[in-house]
Design goal:
This is Sigma factor G inhibitor Gin. There is one protein chain. This protein has helices spanning about 35-45, 50-65; strands at about 15, 20, 25-30, 30-35. By secondary structure, the protein is α+β, with helices and mostly antiparallel strands. It has one domain. The strands form two sheets. It has a two-stranded antiparallel ribbon. It has a two-stranded antiparallel sheet with strand order 3-4.
């Protein structure tokens, strides 16, 4: 019996914020934000430390776009 070739299947993209591979999220320009990070970003208060982390990551997105 002949050998079969290995086929790689890509499930999802790497989130620009948490850097985890997720199947669903937002494609923004050439980057991906997973649904859980998007939800945390939308619901976080500007006084939260997490909020400032998200802002830094999104700024890198805008810098790559320009």
């Amino acid at each position: 019996m002949p050998k079969t070739k290995l086929m790689k299947v890509r499930l999802g993209d790497n989130c620009m914020i948490c850097n985890k591979r997720k199947p669903e999220g937002l494609q923004v320009v050439n980057t991906f934000i997973c649904l859980s990070c998007e939800s945390e970003l939308v619901h976080s208060d500007e006084k939260d430390a997490v909020y400032h982390t998200y802002v830094k990551q999104v700024r890198t997105l805008s810098n790559n776009f320009i």
